[in-house]
Write a structure and sequence with these properties.
Number of domains: 1
Number of helices: 2
Helix content: 10-25%
CATH class: Alpha Beta
Largest sheet: 5 strands, mixed
Radius of gyration: 16 Å
Structural class: alpha+beta
Distance between the termini: 14 Å
CATH topology: STM4215-like
Length: about 140
């Protein structure tokens, strides 16, 4: 249940950022064709991993990791736009996460831990950034 609740909390948070044009709570094989005309930056949310640690006799501390991936086209003369836009949106995501560390109550805390930047070829050439978010949740036995 925690994977579902945390993913939902992350999606709800992403939807509050006006610069993000579309949010998927999965990694689609193809970004929707209507996204090619103004649906960027697009965000996807994917589960990455989880780990359990002993907390006390009543429960464990479970750490979940999710990846939020942002896409922006680099075709034609948009390379500078892609860099500027993604940097700006990443700043907004980090600030928003730091403001709502419980993701609307879906976990005890969430923090953006690292990001990696890349260029990708999907339907069109894209600049992408992957932000790893770790979420801690205490689970009862």
């Amino acid at each position: 249940m925690s994977y579902v609740a945390i993913a939902s909390g992350i999606k709800t948070l992403m939807l509050t950022i006006p610069a993000i044009k579309i949010v998927y709570d999965y990694e689609p094989k193809e970004l929707a064709s209507e996204d090619l005309n103004g649906g960027y930056p697009a965000a996807t949310i994917s589960a990455l991993s989880h780990a359990n640690d002993f907390h006390d006799l009543a429960g464990n501390a479970r750490t979940f990791a999710f990846v939020v991936r942002l896409y922006y086209p680099t075709s034609d003369t948009r390379e500078a736009d892609a860099e500027y836009t993604l940097r700006s949106v990443m700043g907004s995501i980090i600030t928003t996460l730091e403001y709502d560390v419980t993701l609307g109550g879906s976990c005890e805390w969430a923090k953006p831990t690292e990001a990696s930047w890349s260029f990708q070829e999907r339907e069109i050439p894209l600049r992408a950034v992957d932000l790893t978010i770790e979420c801690q949740k205490r689970t009862l036995r």
